Amino acid sequence: MVEFILISSYDKLSSHSRFLLDLRSQEGTYHSLILFRLSPEQSQEDTETGGLSTQQNENQNDRQIYAMEASCPHLGADLSHAEIEECETGLVAVCPWHRYDFDLRTGKSETGLKACTYVVEVRTDDGGVADVWVEAPAGGSNWRVLELRPVSEAFADPPPPNISSLSFETIHNDDVLSAPEDVVPVEGAPSTLMQWAVLILNTANPMLKVERTKHAVHMFRTGQLTSIGNRYSNAPQPPDVPPREEAYSRNTVDPGRVAKRKNRAVMLHALANIEQWAWDIMARFGPAHPDLPPAFFSDFAKMALDESKHFSLLTARLAALSPSTPYGSLPVHAALWESASVTFVSLRARLAIIHLVHEARGLDVNPATIERFRRAGDMESVRALEVIHHDEVTHVTTGHRWFTWLCARQGVDPVQTFREEVRRCWRGDVKGPFNVEAREKAGMTQDFYQDLRGEMGTQQRSGEEESN
Hints:
Elements: E1 4-9, E2 18-24, E3 30-37, H1 40-48, H2 60-64, E4 65-69, E5 83-87, E6 90-94, E7 101-103, E8 117-118, E9 120-124, E10 130-135, E11 144-150, H3 193-201, H4 206-221, H5 246-250, H6 264-271, H7 277-285, H8 294-321, H9 336-342, H10 347-375, H11 379-410, H12 414-425, E12 427-429, H13 436-441, H14 446-449, E13 453-455, H15 458-467
Antiparallel strand pairs: 1-10, 2-3, 2-11, 3-4, 4-8, 5-6, 6-7, 9-10, 12-13
């Protein structure tokens, strides 16, 4: 019997024509799909050319939605920006990298390859609500929806007004217009994702960094980059410490000197202190791990775009709330980069410490931060922070997905290996209280983090005490 997964109500898919759908099975298997919602005219063309049978589609809505694996079976390209074209047998998705085409209904290609496609049904419940159900992937049970989000505002229908579906393309910050350099360098323009990653890491101006991130991710998704570039022998090296503009460097202080009691402006400023985990993990570990699949880079490119979106949301709120203290004018610390440097030599350690400790801690503290802004009546900031919290759950999910993938490749237990990495590369307790629900959704069950303490530096100190 075919298993189906309840995805959402049909109405929630009306804002955009394409959605990213991430699933995880009870066994811990991850699977990413693209939902294509076509116009009735397109779907009618498909039916007339043999797309779907009447028996399969008693409801017109069924013909409007198709589900396909998110990666091209040729070389793993992201299919979220595939072109939809009509051919003799129906409608096809055309991969942006090498123009391989795949039938939206059957997944078959003229090249002989086949993409996995999944039956979509629209069912009306007892309350008259139309719900979208998608056939579950093979090789797992009790599949769970981790994320359903629009691909981008390029596929809005029409652009939604509320912030919860805000895409980075719609965020406008006047400061971006004052970026000191061209987004695409006049000379030596990057042609691979690795080159863009290193350029962005070496970009000191945060507004320019944001614009370059938007451009690079769009180029990658639409097939305008020649290669990921991680398998090139001359792949560029990322900086040990990314540069910052002088104004920001002057205000970088020791963590102990940052005030504990913060007003809303100070909190927004601290939250906007943009980090670059996503670009760094791609540039630093991509060349060292040529076996990483394109889906790894697609996931972290999405994370990089989210990080820049969060920066723009927060700086926009900071400018509205406290125009006299723009980003860069208040003290910040760069303590998190210590964890990045500690994990420079190990992808497994990087995923564990940055994404499953630091970012998971964000899931714990975000609700209290949001509530503080809510009590102050700052609902615009609340909505921005809720978007950020939702995205950060997916960031921890990405960390968990690739940490468990790497552990499986290395033949080690992910829970025990995570705890070993934390003991080796973390200092002090992994502190609670924990947001158990958000962590569990991201894959972090309690056996990962309960009663866990890092021992980094303790052995060295013990040796020094004994010698004294």
